[in-house]
Amino acid sequence: MTDRRYWIAVASQRHVEAAVKSGLMVFGPGRDSEASRPAKGDWIAYYAPGETMDNDSPLRRFTAMAQIDDTAPESREISDGGRAMSRKATYYGDASADVYDLLDDFSFVQDKSHWGVHFHRSLFEVTKDDMLAIARKMGVDGRKL
Fold first, then answer.
1. Which SUPFAM superfamilies match (predicted)?
2. Alpha-carbon span 26 to 18, nearest angstrom
């Protein structure tokens, strides 16, 4: 068995809300490779830069945390009528966390003036300590991680 891994996925808050409601982690169209990267048992924290894809309402918060429940992604119909790759997931906690409150805790942020560059990717791996910091701020029991 491989070691558990930890990820940050970037999506608008509206997309995160739809994912939580459906019990899925959704990866956008053309994101097949990202959907395949997490394994069953891995943890993902959703970071929402804004309420919508247009980022017209900045949010900059971690708004959901989940553990992957299945072994492979599937293409499923999504709320806008299109299709996207998704994974079954169990969500934990219902609080959100401001990214600015976590910047000092993140191992991947070396220069706080350029922290946002990391969140231009749709999915990236982080350390367990990074994920524990997010979990604490979101009220998720770190012993589960």
1. PUA domain-like
2. 9
Quote the CA–CA distance of 4 and 131 in Å, as a whole number. 12
User: In this structure, which amino acid lies at residue 141?
Assistant: D
Q: Is the residue at 145 inside a domain?
A: no
On whether residue 1 sits in a domain, the answer given is: no
Whichever domain contains 121, its CATH number is 3.10.590.10
pLDDT for the residue 75 = 86
Going from the first residue of the chain to its last (145 residues), give the mean pLDDT of each consecutive group of 10, the final group possibly shorter.
86 90 79 87 96 81 97 81 86 94 96 90 94 97 93
Q: Report d(CA 79, CA 95) in Å as an integer.
A: 24
**Would you call 72 exposed, middle or buried from its count of C-beta atoms within 10 A (0-12, 13-18, 19+)?**
exposed
Q: Which residues are registered as beta bridge partners of 52? A: none
- pLDDT score of 33: 83
Q: Are 7 and 44 in contact (CB under 8 A)?
A: yes
Predicted TM-score (pTM) above 0.85: yes
Task: Count, in order, helices (H) and strands (E) of the chain.
Answer: 3, 8
61 is a domain residue = yes
CA-nearest of 35, 34, 17, 28 to 91 is 17
